[in-house]
Design a protein that fits this description.
By secondary structure, the chain is α+β, with helices and mostly antiparallel strands. Helices cover about 40% and strands about 15% of the residues. It is globular, with a radius of gyration of 21 Å. The two termini are about 25 Å apart.
């Protein structure tokens, strides 16, 4: 790493520290801290690359770099993309580098169940919605996103465009029959809502996806699922930011509150029914991720055990969720989701 930094930055390098970020299953993230001279101020970079066993998610790493580089020209809070490196002699595969943003994905007391921290949870959720509104206000054509992402021809075709993109992606690597995918795609087209407007959508939202400092959102991360379409899609995967907070029978925060706050700051109406629709679509997309992971496990005996879990148990869960949404099967036991969430929490640092 020291040799690479000397090569790239054309400066003396000393005291290099390397730490792998333990969270996330889409790609590898490494934190690099170094000094240009003894006694100097430390500099911090973030290296991002696919797993040595191959990519898991559908998008390409270079597309992720493109997203960071273009959003760096806007008021959306993101880490600055510094450069792309395709010379594999350094790390064995391509990677890109972005500037490290001081902060943490965790917010103090956010998950403390004590009611005194309800205000922290609500304020954090609103911070995220403020940033999401900036994403939705981006001029995606001027930034060239329409040259890399499918663009719906009209607001009533947003969901159709999304489903078609998933079908095209799956056709490139499917190795087994998935009738539930075909059934779900047809159902989604039949029940597609009309979008309030066509915007750049982040794709992956919620607690654990963004960087906070001092209670403020300072950088949005995890852009590998970006799309152009209905803003309702970004409310379908908000994780903790849309969860109900109920005290003494009164709902202090939840999806309806989030939608009302978004309407207040943007003037855009997003229907709850559209969000529920895109939650089903999210499950269809998640099924693609699990099948892609299954192909990695099938072809690479050195694939990590977490990928084997994703390819089997998680894949089965999403098939069951889709079957439930389509009315083919009854809802799975809530214990499934409790166990799934517990597993994710245990993997967090």
């Amino acid at each position: 790493m020291a040799a690479y930094l000397r090569h790239r930055l054309r400066t003396p390098i000393s005291e290099v520290k390397i730490q792998q970020f333990p969270r996330g299953s889409s790609r590898e993230t490494w934190f690099i801290e170094f000094l240009e001279r003894p006694g100097g101020s430390p500099q911090r970079l973030v290296f991002r690359l696919d797993f040595s066993t191959g990519k898991v998610i559908m998008s390409e790493l270079q597309e992720e770099y493109f997203i960071y580089e273009r959003l760096g020209r806007t008021d959306v809070p993101v880490a600055a993309a510094l450069w792309w490196e395709d010379d594999e002699k350094w790390l064995g595969r391509p990677f890109y580098v972005r500037r490290h943003v001081e902060g943490d994905w965790q917010v103090a007391h956010y998950r403390d169940p004590d009611p005194q921290y309800d205000g922290v949870r609500i304020a954090t959720a609103k911070e995220h919605l403020n940033a999401l509104a900036r994403v939705h206000n981006v001029d995606w054509r001027a930034l060239g996103f329409d040259q890399r992402l499918p663009v719906p021809p009209s607001p009533d075709r947003c969901a159709h465009t999304y489903v078609s993109a998933l079908e095209n992606t799956l056709s490139g690597y499917r190795r087994e029959a998935m009738p539930i995918f075909i059934e779900a795609a047809a159902w989604l087209r039949e029940h597609a809502p009309v979008a309030s407007r066509i915007v750049l959508c982040k794709g992956t939202n919620g607690y654990g996806e963004e960087i906070f400092s001092g209670g403020h959102l300072v950088a949005m991360s995890d852009w590998e699922e970006v799309s152009i379409g209905d803003p309702a899609a970004d409310f379908a995967f908000m994780q903790d930011f849309g969860r109900d907070i109920v005290r003494d029978g009164q709902t202090l925060w939840g999806l309806d509150h989030a939608l009302a706050y978004y309407r207040e700051i943007t003037g855009t109406e997003v229907a709850r029914e559209a969000v529920v629709f895109y939650q089903t679509l999210q499950s269809l997309k998640a099924l693609l991720h699990t099948h892609s992971t299954a192909m990695t496990v099938h072809t690479r005996p050195d694939a990590p055990i977490r990928q084997a879990w994703t390819a089997t148990e998680v894949s089965h869960i999403y098939k069951r969720i889709l079957a439930t949404a389509l009315g083919i099967m009854p809802a799975p036991p809530t214990a499934w989701f409790a166990e799934l969430n517990q597993t994710v929490d245990e993997e967090a640092p």
